[in-house]
Amino acid sequence: MYVISIVCVLIAAVTAGGADLESGAGYSVHGIKLRSRSDQQLISELQQSVDLDIWQYGLPEGQDTLVMLSPENRVEVLDELDAKGIEHYLHLADVKQALETHAEEVKQWKQQSRSGGAVPFNDYPRYAEVDAYMESIAAQYPNLVTIVNAGKSFEGRDIKYLKISTTNFADASKPIYFMDAMMHAREWVTTPPTLYSIHRLVENLRDQDKDLLEDVDWIILPIANPDGYEYTHINSSTRMWRKTRSVNPEISENCIGVDPNRNFDTHWNTTGVSPNPCAETFPGNEAFSEPETRIVRDILLEHLDRMQVYMNIHSHGNWVLYGFDNYTLPPNYIHLHLVGASMGSVMDTMKLPQADWYKVGNSAMVFYETSGSAQDYGQLVGVPLSYTLELPGYGYGFLVPPQFIDHINKETWEGIAVTARMARIYHQSGL
Ligand SMILES: [Zn+2]
C-alpha cells in the first residue's frame, strides 16, 4: 500500500487534478459579501462547475464567504461575481507565502514546545504522536479507558478511538457522546480539541466536570482520515488536501480520494457534489466506498441504542449545524437548535476578538443543499443530537497559527461540556 501511495503522490504532483497546489503560487483567497440566498446558490453552483474551493461558508448580511481561487479559475469566478454585482475583495493575496509562513510557525512551535515537554493537544501532532498519546492514556488508565482499533485506512493506517467510561460501557442508563475530527485532512485545528477532551476527562478531571465523566460514556476518534492528514504534512503543496487518499483506477487514473463528508449513505450523490473525481466534493463511486467512512458508520450503528450526541468536527467558520441537508428538519429540531445554540453561546462567551460569532442552524437553510454528510447520516440512523461543528479560523483559514490551539481547546471543551449535560438530561427524560 505504501508503494502505491508513493506512486500516487508523484502522479498527483504532476497533474492538475485534486487539491495539490504545487507550490501554492498564484493561489489567492477572496472574501465574498453575500446579499441573498441566490448569491449563496451561485457559490454552490460555482463549487460544482469550477471546483471552487470554499474555505468558509458565508451568510447573507452576516458572514463573508471565503474561497480560494487558482490561476485557472480566478478570472472566470471573479467575472461571474462582477456580472452578478456581488461585492468581493482580496482576503489573502499569496497562498504560497501563507503556506510557508504557516510551515515555519508550526516548525518553531514544535521545537519550542518539545523542549518544554509539550503535550500533543497543544500542538499539531502527527498521526504517530496521536496514536502514542492514545495508547499511553489507555495503558495508564485501564479502568477508565479502552482503546479500540476500528480498522485500517485505505493506505493501511490503524484508525483508533478511545472509549472512556467509569462503568466500562455497561450502564445502559448513560448516554453516549461520540465526537470525531479530521475527516477533512487540511482542517488541522480539529484534532487538538478531541485530544484535549481526553485530557480533561481522564488526566485532568476537575471537580466541576466530574458529572461528565460519571454520567456520560465517551467515544473519541481524533483522526478519522489519517491518510489525508499525513499527506497534508508532506510539504506546502499538499497542505490543502481535503479528501481521503483512496486510489481507484477504474474511476480515474489521475485523481485520488473522495470527500468523506459526501460519502455517507444519506441522499448520497444527489446534491452539493461533483461527478468529477478530481473535485473537492467528489462523493465516491458508491456510498461508503471509503474505509474511513465505514468505520464512522459502524461506530454510530454499534452504539445507536444510547448514543445521544454525534459531534462531527470540522473547520472553519464558527458554525453549529444540524440536519437535514435537503431542507427537511428532523422531528426534534427544536431540541437540536436549543442544544446547538447553548453550545454556540457558551463558546462565544470565551471568543477571541479575531473570531467570528458562532451561528447555529439547519445546514441547508443557512447554506445550501448537500448530500452524504456524516451529520445527516448520524441523524438519519437515530442519533438525537447530530451536529457538524465548524471551529474558528481566526482569519487564517485552515492555517491557524499554533498559538491559538490552547484557546480553541478550552473554548471548544466548554461547548462540548454543555452539549453533554443537555444530552444527559434528555437521555434521562427519555427524549
Ligand atoms: Zn470539513
From TrEMBL:
Pfam families xref list: Peptidase_M14 (PF00246), Propep_M14 (PF02244)
Cofactor entry: Zn(2+)
Coiled-coil ranges (or none): none
Transmembrane segments: none
Cross-referenced InterPro entries: M14A-like_propep, M14A_act_pep, Peptidase_M14
Keywords, ordered alphabetically: Carboxypeptidase, Disulfide bond, Hydrolase, Metal-binding, Metalloprotease, Protease, Signal, Zinc
Record domain Peptidase M14: where: 123-423
Residue positions of the active site: 390 (proton donor/acceptor)
Top-level division of the source organism's lineage: Eukaryota
Leader sequence residues: 1-19
SMART domains to which the protein is assigned, alphabetical: Zn_pept
Cited PROSITE patterns: PEPTIDASE_M14
PANTHER family per record: FI02848P-RELATED (PTHR11705:SF140), PROTEASE FAMILY M14 CARBOXYPEPTIDASE A,B (PTHR11705)
Family: Belongs to the peptidase M14 family.
Protein name per UniProt: Peptidase M14 domain-containing protein
